[in-house]
Amino acid sequence: MLEIDDLHTGYGETQVIYGLNLRATAGRVLAILGRNGAGKTTTMKAIMGLLPATRGAIRIEGKDIAGERTFDIARRGIAYVPETRDIFPSLTVKENLQLATRLAPASAEWTMERVLDFFPNLSRRLSNGGNELSGGEQQMLSIARALLMNPRLLLLDEPTEGLAPIIVRQIHEKLSELKAAGMTMVLVEQNFGFATELADDVHVIGRGETVWKGSSADIIADKAVQKKWLGV
Ligand code: ATP
């Protein structure tokens, strides 16, 4: 589904990613792990065209999308739930969702009705402002908005960050349901347990490149890799 070869990217003069490789397979969940500042968010931004790939290829089902505009990448069916959630605080929950439906394809599988059914908490908060939501509700709204784009690939950057354990559980259940429904996901996480429970495959980023690849079961069993690259 998603193949990245020899990606180089960064912020202007500051290069962060040097020769990163990544493979995400259709119908599976890939977790990208790595220490703080390893370049996980930077990689996500490069996939979405928010940062330029100064070298390398980013292919979606074989088509190189490096250099395309973010809008066009989203239209290819890639939805991004950023670490910052990026909901509109001055708009209501309903308005936040309606904005996403405008970009959705006509024959959408994820309709407003289905999304509200999936996140009943949001259906009770439709007329509340984005700024009135708890962190967990904001996260759910951000995921709901991404689903309304009817993505083939869902990118999630630290969906559990700053959330209470009970909310983390709820997010886990929702993402597990999406996985069971066949959604392909790439997940950046600091929460090792959350990530390895959900993911089939794991890539570890360190020193700006992919330093380890394997299954969740492999990395759970490999204490040396955890210690060296994650400080777990
Ligand atoms: P974290 O869990 O802390 O978000 P991460 O692996 O996602 O970690 P990135 O956010 O991708 O890390 O950051 C990678 C490197 O890029 C860090 O050294 C960071 O300081 C640097 N960086 C991030 N954003 C910018 C920016 N806007 N301008 C310059 N450097 C940046």
CATH superfamily of the largest domain: P-loop containing nucleotide triphosphate hydrolases
Q: What form results from the Cα inertia axes?
A: globular
Oligomer: single chain
Radius of gyration: 17 Å
Bound molecules: adenosine-5'-triphosphate
What's the architecture of the largest domain, going by CATH? 3-Layer(aba) Sandwich
Q: Which structural category fits the helices and strands?
A: alpha/beta
Low-confidence stretches: none
InterPro entries: AAA+_ATPase, ABC_transporter-like_ATP-bd, ABC_transporter-like_CS, BCAA_Transport_ATP-bd_LivF, P-loop_NTPase
Protein name: ABC transporter ATP-binding protein
Domain ABC transporter: 2-232
Pfam families: ABC_tran
Notable traits:
27% strand, binds adenosine-5'-triphosphate, Rossmann fold, 232 residues, alpha/beta, 10 strands, nucleotide-binding, globular
Tell me what you see in this structure.
The protein is built from 10 helices and 10 strands. It has 232 residues and is an alpha/beta fold. A hairpin with a 2-residue loop joins strand 1 and strand 2. Helix content is 38%, strand content 27%. Helix 3 packs parallel to helix 6. The radius of gyration is 17 Å and the shape is globular. 40% of the residues are buried. The model has no long low-confidence stretch (mean pLDDT 94). The chain has 2 domains: 155 residues, Rossmann fold (3-Layer(aba) Sandwich); 62 residues, no CATH class. A 6-stranded mixed beta sheet has the order 6-7-8-3-9-10, sandwiched between helices. It binds adenosine-5'-triphosphate.
